[in-house]
Design a protein that fits this description.
Elements: E1 3-5, E2 12-14, E3 16-19, H1 29-41, E4 46-48, H2 57-65, E5 74-79, H3 90-104, E6 109-114, H4 123-136, E7 139-145, H5 149-161, E8 167-173, H6 185-192, E9 195-199, H7 228-231, H8 234-249, H9 254-263, E10 271-273, H10 278-287, H11 294-304
Parallel strand pairs: 3-4, 3-10, 4-5, 5-6, 6-7, 7-8, 8-9
Antiparallel strand pairs: 1-2
Helix pairs in contact: 1-2, 1-10, 2-3, 4-5, 5-6, 9-10
Bound molecules: NADP nicotinamide-adenine-dinucleotide phosphate (NAP).
């Protein structure tokens, strides 16, 4: 397993991470334990959850699954929700962390992230409240999620001005099908020492190639549910066909390409694919052993018809 320093911090995260929004929903406790134990066995240490996943059950199941293994994993959780005013406020954060610590059955969270920006709360209040948690020892590092580049920069400056803890990671949707973070967010992250944590790296499983055009999705799979309508369209299948050709030419599967391509981006910290089975963990860990060269990355962009335009503002420092 390859490990990387996350942003400008002392946190060493496994490049293959584990997403857990299936836990407490489509994965029961036994399935959760099987996935988490496999992750630990193969050296995957970065486990991403949120107070909202499975309405708290994801954290609770993870807490049970890591009993006796706390030192082998880094727990990262998130508080708040989309469009919920006040979730960046001091009271909300304090209560949320208290709940997460209990459910995760731990006395510290390795990284705590704000799940969505909260425009109703001054960012200065959010950063101070988060810093208090770091100083109290409840939380080791801070991150954000779904922030635009300007919101990330505003937060980092609020922390800098107050001499308080900055964000070291930014979690955003990023995959071979959704690359807009490359325009503004990634250059801001590079400049401010923030690692990018791509979420939905497999586009909900679509990029593994297990969904075929004009065929009904296998029952029980993620995209057989409501999310399928968004991903299973002609445009995505056309892109998938090009990606599959590229992957096969390099003796890999398209799922391996999806994860290895993200891991090959220097600004990416950990790739948190949401596995539902131990075999998927093994496959996803194996995938990131493929290091795409600069030529491979360029050839892939050309095959996909993506312009060779560099990141806006250059790669920063
Ligand atoms: N910050 C945010 O707002 C936010 C939003 C979304 C997600 N996240 C985080 O990011 C994580 C990853 O995103 P995601 O779970 O939405 O999407 P994802 O990782 O792109 O896809 C997850 C799905 O892919 C399938 N899968 C995984 N590994 C596979 C393999 N080796 N072979 C075949 N299928 C495989 C599983 O499908 P089946 O269920 O069919 O087995 C799983 O449900 C989440 O779990 C969560 O921790 C964060």
């Amino acid at each position: 397993m390859e490990y990387r320093t996350l942003g400008d911090s002392g946190l060493q995260v496994s490049v293959a991470g584990l997403g857990t929004n299936n836990f407490g929903g489509r994965c029961d406790l036994e399935q959760t334990k099987a996935v988490v134990h496999k992750a630990i066995e193969v050296g995957l240490n970065f486990i991403d959850t949120a107070e909202s996943y499975g309405r708290g059950l994801s954290e609770e199941f993870i807490g049970k699954a890591i009993e006796g293994h706390r030192q082998e994993v880094l727990l990262t959780t998130k508080f708040g929700g989309r469009g919920k005013p006040g979730t960046g406020g001091r009271s909300y954060i304090k209560n949320a962390v208290h709940g997460s610590l209990q459910r995760l059955n731990t006395d510290y969270i390795d990284m705590l992230s704000i799940h969505f920006p909260d425009p109703s709360t001054p960012i200065e209040e959010t950063m101070r409240a988060l810093d208090d948690l770091v100083r109290a020892g409840d939380v080791r590092y801070l991150g954000c999620s779904n922030f635009a580049a300007w919101q990330l920069v505003e937060a980092e400056w609020a922390a800098k001005t107050a001499h308080s803890s900055p964000f070291i990671a930014s979690q955003n949707p990023y995959s071979l099908l959704q690359r807009n973070v490359e325009q503004d967010l990634a250059p801001a992250c590079v400049k401010y020492g923030v690692g990018v944590i791509p979420y939905s790296p497999l586009a909900g499983g679509f990029l593994t190639g297990k969904y075929r055009q004009n065929e009904a999705p296998t029952e029980g799979t993620r995209l057989a549910g409501g999310q399928g309508a968004r991903q299973l369209n002609d445009d995505n299948f056309a892109k998938l066909a090009k990606l599959e050709t590229f992957a096969h030419e390099h003796d890999h599967t398209v799922g391996e390409l999806a994860l290895a391509w993200l891991a090959s981006q220097p600004f990416v910290g950990s790739v948190i694919a949401g596995a539902t089975k131990p075999e998927q963990v093994e496959e996803n860990v194996r995938a990131i052993e493929w290091h795409l060269s600069a030529e491979d990355m360029k050839a892939l962009d050309e095959a996909m018809g993506v312009g060779a335009e560099p990141m806006r503002g250059g790669p920063g420092r």
